[in-house]
Design brief:
alpha/beta, globular
Amino acid sequence: LRFDPGYIDRFKAEIRGIPGYPVGEDLPIRAMVFEPDALLRLPGLLALAGVTSGQPLSVVMDRTPMKRDGEEFKPLLLELLNNAGWQTDVIWLEPDSTGQVHTDFTQINYVKARLQPTSAVLSVGSGTVTDIAKHACYLYQEEQHIAALPFVVYQTANSVSAYTSNMAPTFVDGVKRTLPSRYPDVLVCDLKTLRDAPQAMTVAGVGDLLAAFGSYADWWLAYRLGLDNTYTEFAQTLMGPLDEIFLAHAEEIKMGTLESMSVLAKLIALAGIAMSLSHATAPLSGYEHVISHVLDLIAERTPRPLAQHGTQVALSTLLTTNVYQIFFDEFEPAEVNLENCYPTEAQMRARVEAAFRPMDPEGQVAAECWADYKIKLEAWHAHRADFEEALQDWSAIRTQLRSLVKPPDVTMQILKAISSPVRFAELVPAPTEDEIPFAFRNATVIRHRFTL
């Protein structure tokens, strides 16, 4: 990796020199540790985060059993903390009727109610637990008008990019929304814990990052059409050549070597930082993510458990990068009927309501989707001149987009190399055949982000 987050001072100095780094902004993470026995350093890392001796330590976990090196992990962790003199208060997150814990305000408010101005917080889990804990801290700080609570993330799986992100994807009226949140003070990646996580979660972590194979292009296209002025190449530079990195490490990732767990954990950390310092999830979240969000919405309403987020995203990336290839080969600007490209608010609101009424007759889902989509529709109308100009410059635009999109066979090669599911039917639980085209067609109307 060109930029190694394991060496925090050098890392911060180097990334400030990347074009697109936000001027005057400091990354507040104090340390990111990627070591086989990082668990044993946890007491000292809590102190580094500002947790003082005798300070109440809220440990946020769900009840998923975990093992590390053949031992039950959570009792081991709590014993380590207690022996080091920390006063732990475990906040157990309980699953809902689907058997899973989801990032929603029921869970977030439950954790927030347990916090005190003197609290320090340690989240122990994968992405969902991390997002719940960090957003509870964020809201508590905002509401109490206090300084940031010391917050340490102990990552238990290489699954998603939540751990270093200052944003929290949260269900709002059943629809996933990305809300401003906070960074951790310290990230702890114990490589033995990550190695012993379920293989499906490791595979999902790779899949979540494969979104970059289409999301960079979506972001640039939105910028080129005047719909997103935040675009920079900072994220691409920070992440490096993901296709080459994954192809080089795929076999070791499948085997679960400690070295490959370190590489993947660092890439996942870089992804969270890339989005946070870009002030947007757009660098690594495009059309493939909104497809995944619609599938999650359907699952929430069914109700049934959610499939692994990153693997669902990877399979959606196969779809979206295929669409880009079709777009490159078949799009003809001369055939565009401009008037048909600008539907009215009434037309689009009716479409949104018709799409989501069957799953939510009361209309909360449609209302939440419309509130966000309407922003994009208004901007689309306002920037009609940019679209007309782009039609005249299609050859240059196609060249630039081609440079940003990885062919779908590269995604497929990586997925096969790490023994990932390569069909939606292989997800657990799997969506129905009708749900996939529904998500593909309607992903565009659930939020304001512009994508192909």
